[in-house]
Amino acid sequence: MRNDTDDENLKNPTDNPENPGVSRRDFLKISGISAAVPLVAGPRVIKAAGQRVRVYGPGKVPMEFAINGKSYKANLEPRVTLLDALRDEFELTGAKRVCDRAECGACTVLVDDKPVYACAMLAIEAQHKAITTIESLTRDGKLHPIQQAFVDNDASQCGFCTPGFVVACKAFLDKHPHAGPEEIRRGLSGNLCRCGTYAGIRKAIAQVAQKGA
Amino acid sequence: MPDYAWPDAQHRTLIGTRVSRVDSPAKVSGQAKYTYDVHRPGMLYGKVLRCPYAHAKIVSLDTSAAEKMPGVKAVHIVQGPGTTIHWAGDEIVAVAAVDEPTAEDAIRLIKVEYKQLEHLVSDAEPPKSGVQEEGPLSMDAIDDMLDNQVPAGQMVSQIQQYGITEKPSEDTLNGLKEDGASDAVLDALRTAAVHAEVASKLPSSYQKAAAQTTGDPEKAFAEAAVVSEGLYGIPVITHCCLESHGSISEWTDPDHLFTHISTQNVSGIPGQMAESLKMPATNIRVHQDHIGGGFGSKFSPDRWGIFTAEISKKAGGKPVRIMLERDAELEVAGARPSAYARVKVGATKDGTVVAWQSNSWGTGGPGGGGMPPIPYVFSIPNQRQEHIAIRNNIGPARAWRAPNHPQAAVLTMCALDDLAAKLNMDPVEFFGKNLNLTKQRESTYREELAIASELMDWKQKWHPRTRIASGDMTRGVGLSFHTWGGRGHASDCDLTIHPDGSVDIKLGTQDLGTGTRTCILIVASETLGIPMEAIQLQIGDTTYPPSGGSGGSTTIGGVSSSTRRAAADARDALFAKVAPALNTQPDQLECVNGKVSVKGDSSRSLSWKEACSKLGVMPLTIRGKNPDKSKPPDLTNSGVGGVQMAEVEVDTDTGVVKVKKMVAVQDCGLVIDLKTAETQCYGALIMGISYSLYEEKVMDPTTGRMLNADMGFYRLAGLSDIPELVVHMMTGKGYDERGVIGLGEPPVISPGAAISNAVANAIGVRVPFLPLTPDRVLAALEQKAGA
What we know:
Chain A has helices at 24-32, 82-89, 145-152, 162-175, 181-187, 198-211; strands at 44-48, 51-55, 61-67, 70-76, 108-111, 114-117, 130-132.
């Protein structure tokens, strides 16, 4: 974790945030009145759409995460994405920042076992959820069968899309352990590669699907 | 003298086999560290304010609010008031702050006033009246050339040939020097002829860049039995490296810079940074473990690499990270020049091509760009070419895998394919008939064409354009040829054998995901007779012996040759120490299977470890080099040929093109690792499908900005777009003995032409321009119906 003592603009929050649970609809309504929210950290309680809603930020607030079965803490602004928190705060750099807007899949992680683009989820939303990153797939130095299949079938070149692809493949195969070629084509369309490693990736998934993940 | 020659097939255990990439485990587990992943203690985060206009002058700049913002550690003006900006997204101010959100907020506090100037972002056919002969160069044009990294020699010859529009003041010259002008360029400017009278006229955006005639094209066209005319083209596309450009720079003391940078050119970076930073190259250390894609766009530190170092200095030497945002990556950090042409080709009745005429144009941004090598591969006896370079405000061009060749392949192979259709000939027969025009590659192409036809099942699939399947879905096949050099670059390799038997190798090269690490280890392991795992390889640092930049398919030939020479010399030096212990002469020893033994008598042997203990206490370090005429033979070579075929299915209702199958038949001399070589070809086919069907840097004429500077609208092919792919590497007699030749560029050249030809075969009409998008396919079909 990074040492934050150097940050002049760090404001010590007074309250622990719970799951904010603000829907997009509520968020839009809140944004409309955000000028009324004072510029201090910690949750404010405001009335929005007839309900009392907690608002965090814009300063840093303390957050807590469960990543790969371990607990991580950090003081982050609510606008920080899960991806940036993983990479810049916790140095879990397997998930890559490429498009930074949910288009390429290079930052794919699992949140409660579902594949998620970490660049499109705010860190504050990811609290109290089970986050699984590529770093946890290798156990005791032994590659996960999907990772081994990537190695066997030469499914990476520059490798920058690879961790996101491996995580997406794991999520896909967990759900469709015996996927056929057509399911694989459709099921992994959410990740992009520039070097053109799809041929190897397709063979890798087929290899695992045949055996059963 | 040791035998450096590559071992023949009977004496190879690893070279030419399928070996798994050694860095795969690190990549698949997320452990491989890229520049973007480097996290230095106390690191600051940089952001860049970019110009929103394609052509503008900076009037004023106010950074005071940003400088006062808490958390901001340094503000650096990259281009100040008075500067003319030539493309949208160009860098104006950089900020370093304690975290990214703070840096972003600070950028928003900077006020810039611009005076907008007229821009041109189109690369449509030049208006006849607007074209100028290459005229005297303005100081702006010189600046553009520097921005575009035009080589100094080329700049000097252009300055001498065309002269300049005004005599530069010493201030101007100093400014140019700061922008990277070499002394030779400055001297040329001081002595250049000044043509002030022409300067009163604004320089045209359309410059005649080349015109040449060979043979007697007029007579040949007049005598040709069949003449085909057509319009063909391929737009500007971007590199779209998944790891964007950028670096992390820190000053380890006031005189020493340490840079982590995403680069294809580790050894070449310090020299490029030194002049701008006014410090000796030896005080700059560069390091990179892994790179997330380059494709020709990452040879230079770039302006942002320089100002990252400068802003770090302003921030007390603290590490500063500036990696480009995705929109900037697509707008300013890499573009392949476009090429369009009206082509006329003529043949005799039997299909012998006799004449070529092309009027081509294209843009490489502010620098204009040159003519692709057309006609490509086929040396047509009578030809005339004219090329117009368009200088515009789309941003600078960069080398993109096989610079100019994919464009040349589209312009040539599509025109020839249309000629074959007009002759009513099967393209395999037509191109086969003209293969003598490929000169020294003829036999290779002939062999490859036969293999490709077989693998594609061409005879079954090809049909005349006039015989198209009825119904909504129609299929077709097409083919293309390509060539490339690929000789190994200069490379130094240090190989050390330690008395305990451990071995390490150091090279200042880089592995772009092409398998460079794997191939170096294969060569060393094969030469020393010990397993790859027993050798420790370190690359990607300027403290290691220099190797050339990874461009032009030059790396494999370079590093395999220098490694081979180092390993062979080290092996023989070891033999000299071991021979007495085995009661023999050094030349009677060999190392195989982890043992040093007497040739033909495996009972007299030492284990590798025992043998190395004879070195005494000092490790043995040997430097191997490429090229090295004193240690023959030449281990690398130049010149390859490849044939590719595509099969497509077109939905004539929607215009959607799907590639159904692609075949690549490729030679690259001696293959070191068949597995990564094949992967390189698969990857090239996939990249080719991507640029053939989807990719285009779309510019908005009104705002002058790129409309699709993100990965949603700058579309890359996805897994579901990829059909059956067949790769066949030409190996064995006739190929292996040529030595090692690069493979990065060749297989990415032909897909555009092959796929375009397949679509023409499928729908009976040419879709002139790539990418072959549904609207273009429907427009071509409509035109055909109306014809």
